[in-house]
Structure formats: C-alpha cells, structure tokens
Amino acid sequence: MVSRTCIRVLVLSLSLATPLLAGSLQKTEVDPEANWLLHANYEAFRDSTLGKLVRAELKAQGIEEQLEDFATVFGFNPLEDLRDVTLYGNGKDREKAVVLIDGRFDQDKLLAMVRMNPEHEEIPHGNVTLHRWQHEENKGKKKKTQIMYGGIYDGRLVVISSGLEAVKGAVDVLAGSGGSGNLGNTLPSGNDNAFLRISAAGVGKMVDQEPQAAVLRQTDSLALTVGETAGTISAQLSLTGTSEEVAQSMTKMLEGIIALATLAAEEQPALAELAKGVKLSQQGRTTQVRFETELRTLFNFLKAQWQQSRQQKEQTP
Distance (Å, rounded) from C-alpha 239 to C-alpha 247? Predict the structure, then answer.
C-alpha cells in the first residue's frame, strides 16, 4: 500500500529496532488457516529500556531526523505512530502471507502515494477498497518487480500481501471472526510486555530440505517470546520434535552449539558472554530454551553486529 521509498524507510526503522515490537496480539485478527505467525509489539518496546536505547541510537545516527521528514510526506512516523505489526501465512507460499500494520495513519496521504503508481488499480471488496500496485525492489545490480495488494481496514489496519486472495481473506477475518486454527496451542498469548512472538505448526514441512535447518526439519511446532523485565532481556523458545528421541537429539545439538560459543571467548567475548545466559531443558517431545541477559549487554552486541554488517555492505562494490 505504500511506495518503494515508504517501504525502505519502514524496513530500516524496524531492522534497527531488533527485536521487533507491537501492541497486544489479537487472535481474532489471525486467519484460522495460518500455520505460522510473527507478532511484534511496538507499544511495549517504546516504553522499555531497550526501546529507549534504540531510540537514542537512531537519533545519533541521524535516522530519527530522516523519519521525521518521511512522516511529513507519508503521514505517519514509524517510531511514534505504529502500535503493532503482525505477519502470518500458510506454508512457504508468498502469496498466502499477509502483513497487518496497526497504527495511526493519514489515509489521504498514503492512498495518494499508492494512486501515483502507474500499475494502480482499485478493487472493491465488501466495505473495503483494495488497491493493486507494482513494487520495485533493488537486488544488487538487478531490479525486481512484484505486484502487491492492500487496503486500510477500520482506519487503523493496513493489510498487505502479494496475493489478492490473501488480502481478501484477511479483510474477511477482520470483519468476522478469526481464531487460533492450525496454530492451536502454539499461538503465543499472555505477557503483554513481550516485544516479539513467533509461532509455527508443521515446521518440518515448511523448511523442507534447507541445509541450514537440520533442527527445524525434525520439528512439529515452535513458539518463541522475547521481552524485557527489570532491565533484563529474556527469551523463551519451545521446540516440539516428531518424537522424544528427536527432542533428545535437538537438545544435544543445541548444547553443542552453546558450548562452542562459550569456548570462543578469546575471539568473540561478547558472544561467549551471551551464551552463558542460555539454559536448556527437555520434557517428552519438547525442548525448552530459555535465555536471559542484561539488556545493555545485548544492545551492545546487536549494535556491533549492525555496524559490522553496514561496513561490509559499504565495502562491497
């Protein structure tokens, strides 16, 4: 629903604010056919200590000023006006994935930008007008174009997908009733202070033969929450394997990864320090991973990784 420039600035602000953030998850806004979900809570993040550290860094890098200019043109400021972001879908099909962006928007400005797109088309659907436009993205030296669809529901929710039927379905769910559906009990709930929630069912089928996903290929479902309490960042991950034997193998594999990170103290002291905050346990088919660390430690680590990544991009011809 937004132009290429809009999406770039929005993605930049979100990527710097890792982990992502948003208002409380509303299960009734999720299509019951979804089997994976990511929900980010901006409201909780803005009030957190980590959020304030990120905000200060954005200001120091001059990005906050860029976002103020962006807000003048597009009618919303990602740092101030977003409440939450929810992504969900079914399997790996991109056209079945939907993003819901909840916030305060100047609809007239947003729609004016969309209507400037040469491929723009309006598509009536119930009480909502959907929009079709062409999104152009730079992939190195190549430019990739993608047809996108979206609309604004109830004046507060921007709904976007590369699939028209997915957008129509999302609007129908918002107008009626959703529910946990395929996600069942793995759908994250509770703790409104969580910045990030991820849930997925049928994980092994989705990752297929991806070489970097050995653990996930044997996983039935997963659930992750990340949040902050009293100056401490904590994350809880549950991985349910296809059998108890698989869970034992996953636990041992994760123990090995943590041990390697701990042993790398001389070369990567920050990573080794973070590894000390990881605790593992197993019950039946489920492996539980709990991580806790002082938020300043994590922030400094993420900042260093981001700066290193930016330097590498600048050096790449």
Answer: 8
Is 118 part of any domain?
Answer: yes
Domain assignment present for 110: yes
Q: Which of 80, 84, 73 is nearest to 156 (CA)?
A: 84
Q: Are 281 and 35 in contact (CB under 8 A)?
A: no
CB crowding 271-308: b at 16 or more within 10 Å, else e = ebbbbebbeeebeebbbebebebebeebbebbeeeeee
What tokens does 195 get? 């910045």
Q: How many domains, the chain?
A: 1
Residue 290 lies in a domain: no
Tell me the pLDDT tens digit for each residue of 232-277.
899 999 999 989 998 998 899 899 999 998 888 778 888 888 999 9
Q: Encode pLDDT of 178-227 as tens digits.
A: 554 556 555 544 445 688 899 998 888 777 666 566 677 788 889 999 99
Both tokens of 269, joined, read 């002291």
